């Protein structure tokens, strides 16, 4: 642990000082213009405070399945929903140029679907690499907490 500035890294989030953020929040982690002119937007969807809290592994896994499936009912631009290895949130990759204000309603609708769901989609050995490693209730608890902080999503840093 050091307070020395780190050299510029290749990965956007490695240049983010995780001590300064105030989860839960939603921010653009990256925006890439492809050679053909199309744009990709990557969101950092942070559920828990870095280095303070993290989600249970089963909850992360079920949130991944449920957001990946339900979000596609609200947007045709979803390319990928992936958990962070630190288990504090997810990356959502969208085709097109999206802002936080445009994506927030999609994320909110997705999580409301999740709260109403009666099962985790594809939680079985045919469709998943660890079909038993899921918790519907754990996913709902995390989604509910994130939704409860809806008014704070656009505030990324404390103060
Ligand atoms: Zn899975």
TrEMBL record:
Binding site for Fe cation: 61, 65, 128
Pfam families noted in UniProt: LuxS
GO biological process: quorum sensing
Superkingdom of origin: Bacteria
Reactions accelerated catalytically: S-(5-deoxy-D-ribos-5-yl)-L-homocysteine = (S)-4,5-dihydroxypentane-2,3-dione + L-homocysteine
Textual note on the cofactor: Binds 1 Fe cation per subunit.
EC number of the protein: 4.4.1.21
Keywords per UniProt: Autoinducer synthesis, Iron, Lyase, Metal-binding, Quorum sensing
GO molecular function: iron ion binding; S-ribosylhomocysteine lyase activity
Gene3D superfamilies to which the protein is assigned, alphabetical: S-ribosylhomocysteinase (LuxS)
Cofactor: Fe cation
Subunit structure: Homodimer.
Entry's family note: Belongs to the LuxS family.
NCBIfam families: PRK02260.1-4
Role according to the record: Involved in the synthesis of autoinducer 2 (AI-2) which is secreted by bacteria and is used to communicate both the cell density and the metabolic potential of the environment. The regulation of gene expression in response to changes in cell density is called quorum sensing. Catalyzes the transformation of S-ribosylhomocysteine (RHC) to homocysteine (HC) and 4,5-dihydroxy-2,3-pentadione (DPD).
Name used for this protein in its record: S-ribosylhomocysteine lyase
Organism the protein comes from: Candidatus Brachybacterium merdavium
Classification lineage: Bacteria, Bacillati, Actinomycetota, Actinomycetes, Micrococcales
Chain's gene name: luxS
């Amino acid at each position: 642990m050091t307070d020395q500035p780190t050299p510029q890294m290749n990965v956007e989030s490695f240049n983010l000082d995780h001590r300064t953020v105030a989860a839960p929040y939603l921010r653009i982690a990256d925006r890439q213009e492809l050679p053909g002119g199309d744009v990709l937007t990557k969101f950092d969807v942070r559920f828990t405070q870095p280095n303070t809290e993290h989600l249970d592994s089963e909850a992360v896994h079920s949130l991944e399945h449920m957001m990946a499936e339900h979000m596609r009912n609200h947007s045709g631009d979803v390319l990928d929903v992936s958990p962070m290895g630190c288990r504090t949130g997810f990356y959502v990759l969208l085709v097109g140029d999206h802002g936080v204000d445009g994506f927030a309603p999609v994320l909110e609708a997705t999580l409301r679907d999740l709260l109403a769901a009666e099962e985790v989609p594809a939680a079985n050995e045919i469709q998943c690499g660890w079909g038993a490693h899921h918790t519907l209730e754990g996913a709902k608890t995390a989604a509910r907490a994130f939704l409860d902080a809806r008014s704070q999503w656009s505030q990324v840093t404390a103060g």
